[in-house]
Amino acid sequence: MLRPPPAVLRRLVDEYEALSAAARPGEPADLSARARDLAYTLCVSTGTRDAERALEVAHQWLATAPAPAREPAPPTATGRRTPTPERA
Questions:
Q1: For 54-70, what is each residue's pLDDT tens digit?
Q2: Which one, 2, 10, 15, 75, has least CB within 10 Å?
């Protein structure tokens, strides 16, 4: 099964959890259309059929995902890039 890139999965999880947290307590069926779309996308992305299970799987995958690569520094006024500090 193909897995989405960790950055994409992180964005889906973060947005879904933010919308879920903003929902009124005791009214889980009152999710917005965006939250329903995110739940569906998370389920498809993780190969699950339940949003809660999709979040569990997504969190497991994100916990084992490699750290994101650092972006190179933008060019300076001279057109040269400043070196990116090495990781410890």
A1: 999 999 999 998 876 66
A2: 2
